[in-house]
Structures are given as structure tokens and as C-alpha cells.
Amino acid sequence: MLKASIDLGTNTCLLLIAEWDENKKEVASVLGDFANVVRLGEGVDKTKEFSKPAMDRTHECLKKYCNELEKFHLIPAQVICVATSQARDSKNSLSFFSEIKSQLGFDFKILSGSEEAKFIFTGALLPDMNAKETLVIDIGGGSSEIMSAHSGMSLDVGSVRFTERFLKSDPVTDNEFWNCQKAIDEVIDHNIIKHLPWREKNPSLQLLAVAGTATTLVQWHLNLKQFDANQIDSCLLTRGDVHRMVEELKWRTISERLSLPGVGEGRADVLLAGSLILWRVMEIFNFTNTRVSTRGLRFGVFV
User: Fold this and answer.
1) How much is the pLDDT for 263?
2) Is 105 exposed, middle or buried (0-12, 13-18, 19+ CB in 10 A)?
3) What is the separation, in whole angstroms, between the first and last Cα of the chain?
4) Going by C-beta distance under 8 Å and a sequence separation of 6 or more, which residues neighbour residue 20?
5) For the whole model, what pTM was predicted?
6) Whose C-alpha in 63, 92, 115, 222 is 20 to 30 A from the C-alpha of 99?
């Protein structure tokens, strides 16, 4: 049984085409996994609206995805399409998605933060992982979701949002960096530590990081010239690894970051903020390492 999903985030637009095992309720094999940086959420943190250039980039990407679907004899109406943080924040998201449905046939659902967290947790788990022993963090462009098997939440802290809000120089200044770190810590302290004390309840939890920030850091760490899901899914990043990469990104210019393995256009400018979020979560919750998964929301919505 063929299934397809689109995960339209603040920074990227992801299309997954897979063979689905209905009996086991899992992906049997991945036939196509496509990622494009569209930056739909560009400026939304400030304006609360999608800009025309961002909508045009997203429209073009979705047109290309129509061609990919056609190769598998699928049509846009069959695709499970979800949008996340940027769509929740934008005042013109409903009109934009109405236009997309009319012109291309994709019918998007805007997920709530809790729905997003639930689907990410379901989709992110790797085959050898125990759900009850795992804490998943998805660092997105506009928000980050942190969840366990029992509870989770969506936080308005993301790589694009916090880059636009704090990291405006190239390279960033010390004050910009420390202000960004302070804001991340305040969000973690206010929303997570006080309400969801996972570590105290289960000190053996394994952290699992998903989405573009985490997979990019692994590509850089392993010196991968090409994206390799098998190598990324089997990698373990230590807290020290992440901290060292944060420190290097801090002094590099955006153009210099592009020379790093796995760091491409559309990721280089926001990678520092995303990496800083991951490092602060590991530091504050005392995770010595994290697994990384190439899976996530686009897998979870199949279930």
C-alpha cells in the first residue's frame, strides 16, 4: 500500500513516499524522501503573515512534488499534508492553503502544538528504541517539540525564529549569542522544568533528536558529503560534540559555514540557533549524549 505525506515547516518542505504495512502499522520501505528549503516562515515571527516571496517558493516546491507523485501514480489529494508552527502563527495561512488546494490539489491541515508533538514522537522512534525510555526533541524553524511516551509540549523556540530575533550579525556578536542562549534557557525553565519533570521520574531516558538541525550536525560530525540515513540513524552525538560545534558556528560567518560537510543553503544561517537549542536541552537536563533520527513528523502522520 503506497502512502505519501508532506510536512511543511517554517524552514523546509518534506515529501515522503513509502510502502506502508497496514498490519504492522509501520513504513515497510521508503520509496522517496525529498527535502527542500522554502523558508515559508520567513519574517512570520515579526509580521504574523506569510510573505509573497515565501509563498511563491513554497508553491514552486509543491508543483515539483506533483511531478514526483505522478511517477508513483499518486495524486495530491491522496497525500497527507500537514503544516506546523509558521501556519499557526500566520494570519494568512488559511487563504494560502485554500489557494494551494484550488490550484494544486494538496489539502493541508494545520496541526496544533500538541498534535505536532504526538505525531513527531510516533514517527521519530527508530526500530531498536523503547518508546517508554525515550525523550524526543524536534528542533524546527518556528517551534521545538519535546515529548515522551506520556506527555509533551510545543515551544515557540526555533532555529529561524531565534535567528531572526537574536542572531542578526554575521558572524554573530557575543551579546547576540548570550542573549539568544538566555532566552532559550528561560523558555526551557518556564515551560519544561516546572511542568514536565521527565528526568527526575526516569533518569535512564535516552534523548532522540530529529529534524534538520540534528541531521545536519551529524553529517558535519561524520564528514558525510552525501545524506546517508543509515549512518545518521546509527550515530550518537555527545554533549561535548554539540557544544564544540556551537562554539565553532559562533565564530564562523554564514559563507564559512557553507564549507562544512552537510551544511547547505537555507541551513547555514539558522544552524547556530538550532544547535544552541539542542545543546541547552542536553546541558540543562544532563543528557551526556543524544541519538539522531532522520524520521519524524512525516512518518508519524501515516499512523
Assistant:
1) 93
2) middle
3) 13
4) 1, 2, 3, 26, 27, 28, 302
5) 0.88
6) 115
Q: Are 211 and 139 in contact (CB under 8 A)?
A: yes
For residue 224 the three cell numbers come to 558525510
Q: What are phi and psi of 260, to 5 degrees?
A: -80, 145
Closest by CA to 80, choosing from 146, 27, 41, is: 27
Nearest-angstrom CA–CA distance, 195 and 255: 40
3 state DSSP class of 290: strand
Which residues in the chain come in under a pLDDT of 50?
none
Query: Is 126-300 assigned to CATH 3.40.50.300?
Result: no
Domain ranges of the chain: 2-110, 126-300
Exposure of 36 in the CB half-sphere (CA atoms within 13 A)? 17
Cell readout for 293 is 533520527
